[in-house]
Design a protein that fits this description.
alpha/beta; six-stranded antiparallel beta sheet; 28% helix; binds manganese (II) ion
Length: 471
């Protein structure tokens, strides 16, 4: 090797393409790993469905509800059907700190309004009014097939779950966009973010009037209620308390002629939920430190609410783990446990989009296919609203990944002053733990069809497993 090449190899850093570096065996493992992941995306399009999935999975994996099994080493707690803590008790006392990976299982979507159903006076179509949830580009949701997923709680307290639009035989729904021919004044003169206002995001629900009596007022709306009552035994008032979410209809797919990518809804952040839970399930026996996977709700609207990461849920779960493990669980011991803990805030980052490279700074941006991103800070402007991980902890994580052969890179969300965003990291850091963001890159984040690399999905799994086993 020439001297300059030697020096370059020894002294310089450059991120590496997983597909160049990985062995043939590991490439195959990466491609195979995504099969289970796509199934997970298909089954879990809402936070509630994600929890339902893990209730089944945890039973299969031999985990016990923490209250119900005194001696169990693998325990969990579900909270309000929307978030969960899952733990394996380690050899060391919990008061010396835990290794926790937090991700979120909510995704940007469109909800039905509480009183959604109405009959449009000018067209006599049955329509559903909506209210969007999280950061969406509203125009992306128009004129595309949509499905309804949700839960009604009836007057007798019984819950009724619905999914309409996912089975091939199901009908789907749509919020029709305006034809280009007539869009000149109403849309084309506006800024792109204003072209669709929220009041125009109404879903076409039905069109046939109730047939028995031509004179019936709002017969189309009545017919919708008759059909819903026949199928689900609900009445209009049941909508007022219901949680019905509108999501893109259809399954996650392989993308690219080489099938190296996954296209699907809600990968932010179910990609990290799935890979961190797999990492916990596959972690070696007899972990040194207690390992926890925390699946949080409400991240897309600021982590508020009693199922969001700002709630007391995870702290309370760690307190109960102390108690479960026969340790002191007074507030001082709990605080020390938290301060001694290490947290990966597992969330997606923005990969460089070849169609819009100008918003990224190439040397510091995430490249999809180049492994999981270790992201020191997020936020916007002068790092505002960011956790900004400590160099010592950042270096420790990188060192583990290097030793364990994890394909990783560093990543920043975008050019400075281009925009920005935050994650759960800062809420976990409030309790004194070491926290760093770590997750795969995504193209088209928050769109109906997010694109990820199978190399990064697999690398995230490996990174999370290495963290539980070595940090
Ligand atoms: Mn996210
Ligand atoms: Mn998001």
């Amino acid at each position: 090797m020439k001297k300059t090449d030697e020096l370059r190899k020894k002294l310089t850093y450059s991120r590496k393409n997983f597909w160049n570096e990985a062995s043939v065996k590991e490439q195959k493992e990466a491609l195979n790993f995504s099969e289970g992941y796509k199934n997970f995306l298909d089954e879990c399009k809402t936070e509630r469905e994600s929890i339902d999935y893990y209730v089944k999975e945890l039973e299969k994996q031999g985990y016990k509800e923490i209250e119900k099994a005194k001696k169990a080493k693998k325990v969990f707690r579900i909270s309000r059907n929307k978030n969960a803590g899952i733990a394996i008790i380690g050899r060391k006392p919990i008061s010396e700190g835990v290794n926790l990976i937090v991700s979120h299982i909510d995704a940007p979507r469109v909800d039905l309004k509480q009183n959604p159903l109405h009959e449009d006076g000018s067209t006599n179509l049955g329509m559903m009014k909506t209210h969007y949830y999280g950061g969406i580009k509203k125009y992306q949701w128009m004129s595309t097939p949509l499905a309804l997923h949700g839960t009604f709680i009836k007057k007798n307290g019984k819950s009724v779950k619905i999914t309409i639009g996912e089975d091939d035989k199901d009908p789907v729904f749509v919020m029709p966009d305006l034809l280009p021919h007539l869009a000149r004044k109403v849309q084309y003169t506006k800024k792109i973010g204003e072209a669709i206002d929220a009041g125009k995001m109404n879903l076409v629900f039905n069109s046939i009037p109730y047939p028995k009596d031509n004179e019936t007022k709002e017969a189309v709306k009545l017919n919708a209620l008759v059909l819903l009552n026949e199928k689900y035994d609900i009445v209009e008032e049941d909508f007022l308390s219901a949680e019905i979410e509108i999501v893109p209809a259809g399954k996650a797919r392989d993308a690219g002629i080489d099938r190296s990518l996954v296209l699907g809804y809600g990968q932010d952040d179910r990609i990290c939920a799935y890979t961190s839970a797999c990492a916990l399930f596959d972690a070696k026996d007899k972990l040194e430190k207690t390992a926890i996977v925390y699946l949080a709700d409400k991240e897309e609207i600021g982590s508020d609410g009693n199922t969001g990461a700002k709630s007391i849920f995870i702290i309370d779960f760690i307190a109960d783990l102390l108690k479960h493990n026969g340790e002191n669980f007074d507030s001082s011991t709990l605080r020390k446990a938290l301060i001694n803990s290490q947290v990966l805030s597992a969330d997606v980052n923005a990969g460089i989009n070849p169609n819009f490279p100008s918003v990224h700074e190439k040397e510091n941006a995430v490249h999809i296919g180049f492994g999981v991103s270790v992201t020191k800070f997020t936020g916007s402007g002068g790092k505002g609203g960011s956790n900004d991980a400590n160099a010592e902890f950042n270096s420790k994580i990188i060192d583990i990944y290097n030793k364990e052969g994890v394909s990783w890179q560093t990543g920043a969300l975008g050019k400075v002053d281009e925009g920005g965003g935050g994650t759960i990291a800062k809420f976990m850091a409030e309790h004194g733990a070491e926290v760093i963001d770590c997750g795969p890159g995504v193209l088209g984040m928050h769109s109906l069809y997010e694109l990820t690399s199978k190399a990064d999905i697999y690398s995230s799994y490996k990174a999370y497993k290495a963290f539980f086993e070595n940090a």
